[in-house]
Amino acid sequence: MTTATHNNKVVLVVGAGDSTGGAIAKRFAEEGFVACVTRRSADKLQPLVDAINANGGQAHGFACDARKEEEVIALVEQIESQIGPIEVLVFNIGANVPCSILEETARKYFKIWEMACFSGFLNAREVAKRMVTRQRGTILFTGATAGLRGAAGFAAFAGAKHGIRALAQSMARELGPLNIHVAHVVVDGAIDTDFIRDNFPEKYALKAEDGILDPAHIAENYWFLHNQPCDAWTFELDLRPWSERW
């Protein structure tokens, strides 16, 4: 493996969507990080990349299927050799697809697990290999309430999110002594997105009273986790609006 000699600090956001992932990339870019963002389609990343660059930051978009080992290995090698060391990895793929267990198919169940759990393993493993050699780094996983308890109709999603939480726990215990902070963020509640606005208008109406999560406020907590001193690291952080029942 080769390593870039650049002085750039890189945040790699896997699953940089239009809300949470994009907001996290913007927040780190504000602090001087080069934001490397990925989705399966690079075209969908261009508005985010343009917005970061227009605001004085640096960003690069990459098309990468996070479920494909060879693509993940190539992505990490390209960033490390051409842009800079990945100081922070944010894994932010969701795959929240409801379905009755009586109607769930093996193909869809497996695909949801691949997206929300297996791809987290692939990306975290490759980045962790680099971080260990430098003896520093932060790996942050976006989780959900489904990672703590499975709801009716969400067996596949709950299984995947339980798995990613277990992965994060194991990695935190193994890598923490090597000065790599691994944390799991439980996002519990509706987020201010076009999807919520268009499909759940009653829920979206709560935005006026701070009843849904603001992606920028979520991102602020990821920045907070990265900056924690190692004598007071958080492993699991819950984020939910005041109105969300739990």
TrEMBL record:
Alphabetical list of InterPro entries matching this protein: NAD(P)-bd_dom_sf (IPR036291), SDR_fam (IPR002347)
CDD domains: SDR_c10
Pfam families found in the cross-reference section: adh_short
Stated name of the protein: SDR family oxidoreductase
Species whose genome carries this gene: Pseudomonas kielensis
